[in-house]
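Handout, section 3.2

Students often ask what a structure token actually looks like in practice. Rather than define it abstractly, here is a full record for AAA+ ATPase domain-containing protein. The first block is the sequence as you would receive it.
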Amino acid sequence: MNNVYTKLKNNFIEDDNLEWFINLDKSIQCYNKIVNVLQKPIKLALFYGKPGSGKTFLLNKILKDLDNENIIYFSHPFFNESDFLNEVCEKLKISISSKNFEAFLKEYDLSLKGVDEILKNQKIIILDEAQLYPPKLIEKIRLMADSRYFKVLFTVHKTSDEDVLAKDYFSTRIWESIELKSADLAEIRVYIQKKLDDKINLINFSQNDYALIHNLCKGNLRTLNKLMYKFLQICESYEAHKPSMLSTSKNNKKLIYMAAIDTELINA
């Protein structure tokens, strides 16, 4: 079963293809703020947002655009300092015998003299999923930032009304905080239209359709992708077996609800 909807639905599959990065107002603002922070001589910064808001995708976009060998990016968490230090050394392509932070900092590149030279050669460590790191390891990583040889950007999930910033081990000594908020209705509309590209007229969503989609996914891009994939999969099936169902945009609402039920966003 292949038709016009078959390929279209794949535009909403989440992968690492940065060609499908969609610039939205909030993501552009966060992009510029993060790039600015990475260029500042600061120690610690925090980037946070709800799961599925697009934080990791945005980070990968920044990493690709900057293409800076001084940036060390860890996409998955570590749970002990030895493993973390081993990975840091591997990323830096250096060999250091130390297995703890205190000794590591004494051994690491002590030939640099003066604040200007240290800041010029400062390495940037970006930690995704930082909320999963043990508090003791977070404290050790702070010591790395205090040395001024490194600056650290923590990326964490905002998972509840109790803001992540309230946690002591993230709030203390954070110099700048950047939040990627959920997409609003206008951004949801832009996201869908750009993903549908030249086939946008094939769907012909009304403003009420966009509002319904926004309400169902609550501005979460990951949820939006799942909903739209299922919506287009349903369209694919109707195109193959009952194309009259797609002959009018009045049925969009019905198809959206069908997709929402299938993806368990609502109960039947």
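Discussion prompt for tutorial groups: The mean pLDDT is 87. How would you have guessed this from the sequence alone?
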